[in-house]
Amino acid sequence: MRRLSYLFREAWANMRTNRTTTVVAILTTAFTLACVGIFLLLYVNLRSAAGWLQEDIKIMVYLEDRIGREVAQELENQLKADRMVAGALYITKEQALGEFRAQFPSDSHLLEGLGENPLPASFVVTLAPNFRSPDAVKRWAERVRTISGVAKVDYNQEWIDVLAGLIRYIELAAIGVGIILSAAAVTIIGNTIRLTLFARREEIEILRLIGATRAFIRIPYFLEGAVLGACGSALSLGILKVGFELFRQQIRSAGRFSGIENMLSFFPVSMCLALIAVGMGLGFAGSFVSLRRFAESRT
Amino acid sequence: MDGPKHGLSVVPMDAMIQLIHVSKFYARRAALADVTLEIEKGEFVLLMGPSGAGKSTLLRMLVGAERPDEGQIFVQGKNVTKLRQGEVPYLRRKVGSVFQDFRLLTKKSVFDNVALPLIVQGSSPVDIRRKVTEALRAVGVDHKKDQAPSSLSAGEQQRVCIARAIVNGPIVLLADEPTGNLDPERTAEIIELFKLINARGTTVIVATHDPHVMSQVNRRVIALVQGVMVPEQRVGV
């Protein structure tokens, strides 16, 4: 117990002795991790936007003009029996015309010259939640397109594809930037620990000579690295939160994208805790690298 | 337990330290050349020789800080040359070290400096308080326990260093030029302290180049010149 309290006191003493270096390390780590956080925040929000779009997806299955109500009924039964389908609503030709007139009253005269109603009957299909991924939607649409009596299957694939592509790019960018800036954070913390090790090299030598094990000598530096990483990470979350709220306020006051500000969300608490843990891990890694180099330089 | 297998035909049961044909080279120069010796349990030995004779190298080898290029070293029957890195700290807990420059932690009090070997080996707070108080009393600086080492005289700092070396009851005490920074009066006091520690049963090895120390100790002398051991002489008993 005394040994444990000694190790914690040593870690605290290290940070207090090198106060300026400690503060600089926490600040630089915080800003570095905040840069990674921006990409993460973008990624999280785009993913949830994609989720909403995906949930809202409606697939139009247009029927050939030649088929009668009985065949349409059979098709409806077939669609409703499909495990991928959550719901299918039949829209008759007349209903389609009515909706067109209601939606485009100024253009309704265009249809009058044609005599017969040119709009096809259709089904508005909603897929079950498990089958709303772009790939699943595409595969389902291709399958239904081959059914006899189906003229065309239509859905907002382009939007989904664009968004999915964008998310992939953001994901790659977040991973790339994350790796580079995490390495930077490891280096920053590692250098701070190296300075401490250098300042206390004689003390470390004394500890070795009186029989301290490698773990006993190293633990205070691991603790210091972990604390620096955790503090840097927590501060970066604070910076991001402030920036996020300012951005949301800016959107609200601009009034051009009304409603969007309520769709934006910050990291959930669990993710904040996970990011602090990641910061701790990076600090730990920084200490590990420095201690290894230090040990190599002393042998 | 590893036993010495070559070099010496008869191994005394109470041998505390044995060096068998030990050599150490730095850039092809021999710091120690084919040194073979035995130190018995409870002995007081002076390791004499000018600077660069190999005294410090020998002491460093006894605590596993250096490894010989040739030969074998045994401490209490344990082959030090074959110790794994993780075993070295446990050897050092049995061998106390005293240094010429004291090597005290300037930011810690005298008490905390002396307590360090006990903290390292996980002693209880009650044990630490008792043993540190005893060690400080034994070397005569118990009244300075709360002071910083920098506020003490050189002689007092060396006493604190000795207290730290004996606080966990080592079987061997190694002192490398312990009087190098002290005046003759303090030197005499420190030597008396070593004699007292030795009288309690601890094997004491003092490396020095100071001939005055030899005249005060009157015990076995092992002389080294340029890494080579010269024939032994025993001064008094």
Layout of strands and helices, then pairs:
The complex is a heterodimer of chains A (299) and B (237).
Chain A: H1 2-17, H2 19-55, E1 59-63, H3 69-81, E2 85-91, H4 93-103, H5 109-112, E3 122-127, H6 134-145, E4 150-154, H7 157-199, H8 201-209, H9 214-254, H10 260-263, H11 269-297
Antiparallel strand pairs in A: 1-3, 1-4, 2-3
Chain B: E1 15-26, E2 29-40, E3 44-48, H1 55-62, E4 70-75, E5 78-79, H2 88-92, E6 95-99, H3 110-120, H4 125-139, H5 154-166, E7 172-176, H6 184-199, E8 203-208, H7 211-217, E9 220-225, E10 228-234
Parallel strand pairs in B: 3-8, 3-9, 6-7, 7-8
Antiparallel strand pairs in B: 1-2, 1-4, 4-5, 9-10
Key attributes of the depicted protein:
heterodimer, A: 299 residues, alpha+beta, Alpha-Beta Plaits, 2 domains, 11 helices, B: alpha/beta, 6-stranded mixed sheet, 4-stranded antiparallel sheet, 32% helix, globular, disordered N terminus
CATH topology of chain B: Rossmann fold
Summarize the amount of helix of chain A as a percent range. Answer: over 70%
Strand content of chain A: 5-15%
Annotation field: number of helices of chain A:
11
Tell me the number of strands of chain B. Answer: 10
The fraction of residues in strands of chain B falls at 25-35%
Rg for CA atoms of chain A: 31 Å
Q: Biggest sheet of chain B, strands in spatial order?
A: 6-7-8-3-9-10
Structural write-up:
- The complex is a heterodimer of chains A (299) and B (237).
- Chain A is built from 11 helices and 4 strands; from the N terminus they run ααβαβααβαβααααα.
- Chain A is an alpha+beta fold.
- Chain A has 2 domains: 2-53 and 161-297, no CATH class; 58-155, Alpha-Beta Plaits (2-Layer Sandwich).
- Chain A has a 4-stranded antiparallel β-sheet with strand order 2-3-1-4.
- The longest helix of chain A has 43 residues, at 157-199.
- Chain B has 237 residues and is α/β, with parallel strands linked by helices.
- Chain B has a single domain, classed as Rossmann fold (3-Layer(aba) Sandwich), CATH 3.40.50.300.
- Chain B is 32% helix and 28% strand.
- Chain B has 7 helices and 10 strands.
- In chain B, the strands form 2 sheets. Chain B has a 6-stranded mixed β-sheet with strand order 6-7-8-3-9-10, sandwiched between helices. In chain B, strands 2-1-4-5 form a 4-stranded antiparallel β-sheet, covered by helices on one side.
- In chain B, strand 7, helix 6 and strand 8 form a beta-alpha-beta unit.
- In chain B, helix 3 packs across helix 4 and helix 4 (125-139) packs across helix 5.
- The radius of gyration of chain B is 18 Å and the shape is globular.
- Classes of the chains: A alpha+beta (299), B alpha/beta (237).
- The A-B interface holds A 1-3, 6, 13, 17, 202-203, 205-214, 216 and B 63, 65, 85-86, 89-93, 97, 103, 105, 107, 116-117, 119-125, 128, 164.
